Amino acid sequence: MKIVVTGASGFLGREVCLAALRRGHEVIALGGSRAPTIPGVKEARAFDLCSEAAVESLLLEEFPQAVVHCAALPTIETCLADPAKARALNTEVPRKLAQLCFHVGAKLVHLSTDTVFDGVAGNYQPTDQPAPLNLYGETKAAAEIEVLRFGREHAAVLRTSPIIGNSPGGDRGLHERLFLAWKEGRPAALFTDEIRQPVEVSNLADVTIELCERANLSGLYHWAGTEALSRHEIGVRIARHFGLEAEHLVTAISRAEVPAASARPRDLSLRLHPLAGKLRTAAQSFDEQLAALRVPRGCEAWVEQVTGRKVVRRLEKGIDF
Ligand SMILES: NC(=O)c1ccc[n+]([C@@H]2O[C@H](COP(=O)([O-])OP(=O)(O)OC[C@H]3O[C@@H](n4cnc5c(N)ncnc54)[C@H](OP(=O)(O)O)[C@@H]3O)[C@@H](O)[C@H]2O)c1
Predict the structure, then answer these.
(1) Any residues with Cβ below 6 Å from ligand 1, and which?
(2) Residue 88 near residue 73 (C-beta atoms within 8 A)
(3) Cα distance from N-terminal residue to C-terminal residue, the chain
(4) From ligand 1's centre to the CA of 107, what distance in Å?
(5) Rounded to whole angstroms, what are the CA distances from 41 to 14, 35, 92, 156?
(6) Ligand 1 centroid vs 13 CA: distance in angstroms?
(7) What separation in Å is there between the alpha carbon of 10 and the centre of ligand 1?
(8) What is the pLDDT of residues 10-25, one digit of tens each?
């Protein structure tokens, strides 16, 4: 199958390309400002998705069987910094892609987010009504409607949770951002009462490719790991996994202590039904996700110093000690 992957220079998009290659597909990898460097792809280029004419020519020339759309402004902060770009990239681009995919008969797998919910109830199922609290959530919730407007059978919208894993730049994964702070002597203050359900990047990438392959799986789905955890517990378990002293590195705070926290969703846990069970890829426990994490590049000396254990780099996935 020929698959176009957008956001291929980003955290998830790169893994989506690798998952597609592992499963024998032909991949056209589109970065934004940078051409992705991914061995084995048919073509890799920098590409501005906000140019509707360029997107149209690409899809009409390539006639892919599927498009996995990962490009986005994927955080509350980046959306607030440039609201016009957030609306263009997060809502308008998916609308155009859905229209073109419908036209050429390609399946669109569109990445969405748990942040479309307000976090009041938690344990959300795909049929629950989005109620975003911020611009990021608003632009992504609007995109879901646009993508499914052309018929639920032509597209799969996959809402997901905070992604953990090893990123190419060593700064996008949840554990990588923690390590960068720890290394600089800054303990992480993490909420004990804010709930998220992390997912490992390559597991999520496998699911996106299975959705490309499975014509009967379309519509709106949730995918994450199997465990809903507080941010504090996530930080503590990451620290302990690497043999670090969580007590010194992770500080517990509650939302009541931070007035601005009321604008953040409290509990974004997701129910994975009905997608879980329909796929070959299984949802992972948090321990299974931790097993894929490596000490971020540049943090090895610090880890060796505080643990007294040697960090051994391995090429394959897995822990480094
Ligand atoms: N990361 C998470 O924890 C998380 C959680 C839930 C949902 N999601 C969703 O998952 C998806 C992937 O997120 P991510 O974390 O992988 O994002 P990311 O690492 O920030 O990657 C974003 C990608 O978008 C590209 N891009 C930006 N502007 C572009 C433009 N005008 N034209 C074309 N490409 C452009 C970037 O390219 P350049 O860098 O080359 O410019 C980059 O490849 C998003 O839809 C996000 O909403 C992410």
Answers:
(1) 6-7, 9-13, 31-34, 47-50, 70-72, 74, 89, 111, 113, 140, 160, 162-163, 172
(2) no
(3) 38
(4) 20
(5) 11, 12, 27, 23
(6) 7
(7) 5
(8) 999 999 999 999 999 9
CB 86 within 8 A of CB 71: no
Name residue, tokens 């986005």.
Answer: 72
Q: What would the two tokens of residue 289 be?
A: 């996700």
Indicate which atom in ligand 1 lies nearest the CA of residue 111: 45
pLDDT at 282 over 90: yes
Indicate the residue type of 52: E
Which residue in the block uniquely carries the two structure tokens 């597209």?
Answer: 155
| Whole-model pTM over 0.90 | yes
The pLDDT value given to residue 317: 42
Mutate to test the pocket of ligand 1, among 16, 55, 70 (most ligand atoms within 8 A of CB): 70
Residue type, 70: C
pLDDT digits (tens, 9 = 90+) for 96-106: 999 999 999 99
How far apart are alpha carbons 315 and 67 in whole angstroms?
29
pLDDT > 90 in the chain, percent: 90
